[in-house]
Design goal:
- By secondary structure, the protein is mainly alpha-helical.
- It has one domain (about 1-155).
- It contains six helices and no strands.
- Helix 2 packs antiparallel against helix 4 (about 70-95) and helix 5 runs antiparallel to helix 6 (about 125-155).
- It is elongated and about 70 Å long.
- The two termini are about 10 Å apart.
């Protein structure tokens, strides 16, 4: 949304891109999480088999703790979609271009902090450090997308 906003003021274009980003981002996160957790699960199963061959009783305890790739993929997709819908809704109701961009950045920033805090609480990690990392990462992504699209859109006469 920030990229398209850098070269086009039309609210419809921003909403279409925001929705496409929500769907594609949620799918990408889900697929990435699924592949990652499947790999983690395979490694853990192989480790349990090695322990079983050695006669260790730990392998029986780990059967119940194996990660679920489908559950992880759904959780990741849902988290991404919830985070993406916040700026999308903001953009849908604000017609003035510069105000819309400022509100999208502000609301996305609040959502990033909330996700950082939630992740810290769930993971038992320092809240300020976790939320700052998520916030700065989000700002970097928004700034990079905005800047690169502006650069490409203005220098090369792209029809955005």
């Amino acid at each position: 949304m920030m990229g398209v906003s850098s070269v086009k003021e039309d609210v419809k274009a921003v909403i279409v891109v925001g929705f496409a980003g929500l769907v594609s981002g949620a799918c990408s996160m889900a697929i990435g999480e699924f592949v990652s957790v499947c790999t983690q699960r395979d490694v853990e199963i192989a480790q349990m088999k090695r322990e079983k061959r050695k006669g260790s009783s730990k392998s029986d305890e780990n059967d119940e703790k194996l990660p679920n790739p489908v559950q992880a993929a759904l959780a990741s997709a849902l988290a991404f979609a919830i985070g993406a819908v916040v700026p999308l809704l903001a953009a849908a109701f604000i017609r003035q271009h510069k105000v819309r961009m400022a509100v999208v950045v502000a609301l996305a920033s609040v959502a990033l902090v909330v996700f950082g805090v939630a992740g810290a609480l769930l993971g038992g990690t320092p809240m300020v450090k976790s939320s700052a990392r998520v916030l700065v990462g989000g700002w970097m992504a928004m700034g990079t997308t905005f800047g690169l699209t502006k650069l490409i859109g203005s220098d090369h006469g792209m029809p955005f």
